[in-house]
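Retro notes - structure team

What went well: the batch runner handled both jobs without manual restarts.
What didn't: labels got mixed up in the shared folder, which is why I'm recording both outputs here explicitly, each with its sequence directly above its tokens.

Job 1
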Amino acid sequence: MNRALAETLSFLNGLIAVVMVLFGLAAGYRISGGTILGTLSGGFVGFLSAALACGTIAYLALIERHLATIAGANPDNLARGIRREPKL
């Protein structure tokens, strides 16, 4: 069950990042009264927010995948303390 939740979060992470950038664009457009500079500024702020929030989640998911590879690609091995050398 944890594996399914982790994979779902990894998938949704990209969608959330796109929504954050689009929300930044829309907010910049509304706040600036429709100017292109305000819209681009809002998009930049949305991009930075997405990079910080979703980038952190992406790095955690990447670390989890690497740890699963090191443990022999079996999450049960981590719980039992079994270590299998990865194939090269």
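Job 2
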Amino acid sequence: MRHSSLVRRQLLVFLVLFGAILLPVGGITLAALLSPPPYRLTATPDPTWANGQSLPGGGRASVRTLADEESARAAARAMLASTQTSSSSTVGSVFRYRTAAERGFILAIDRYVVSATAPDEASLDRAIAALPFLVSNEDAGSFVSLLDRHLFLFCAGVLIYALLLIVVLSRLAGWAARRSPLPNSQVLSAASLRARLLALEFPGVTVDEDDGNELVLRYDGNGVVERLTLRLDAYARVVRAVSTATRGSLFEGQRIGFSKSWRRNLPSGQSSDRIGQVVQSSGWTWQPVFTFVRIVGG
């Protein structure tokens, strides 16, 4: 029963993770597919635009005519690739870039490639708005157009969402891995549990003690130093397991378990189960911590 409960919690965490990734991606993809294109032609560009024309705000634009839509997209990509840019962004068929001297815009639309440059971003937007044959669909609710004009805000939103997702999943993973005390087990004191844990032996693993309620199990081999810190919370009767790993002087991230003497997915694995079983049989809760910093969760 306890094992099936643990499996159900782990399955729930997986479903939450799957949904948290799939739903936003699916929503963004659907919005991009269903929304109107970022720009539309209101007239056929005059052939004189092939030589370029000046626009308000110091801008300049030109239009290339290709054989078909696919050729126009390929030409737009090639134009961007041949430009010495300091940064660039691509949203659908819209390309924006910056150089040391100016800002640029390239659009593949129908069988045309529209390109424009201006001294700064505001002047570039005014230049694009002044094109007599092109109009933005932003007012019509074009998701791609909004993304093109506000890409920084979109990326900031994605980053904030990812950070919140890490926080939530750290909490959920800790909840899914929690193992309650065994039924009818005698509740031992922190000192008695500490003694039982110190009596365990693992090949190549040393144990460091402190004066408080913490034990640090250390494995040092093949240039990898891994530590499993057991924190005994006497008030809540919980043992929290926090695992870290380093290679030389570079931090490599957290792992749950030692690579040689342990399996990484605590509380799974024969070796790691020995600690969990001792904790549970002592009337305490076994709680692996899934976190980047302790405050996040677990």
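One thing worth noting from job 2: The chain has a mean pLDDT of 77.
We'll revisit the folder naming next retro.
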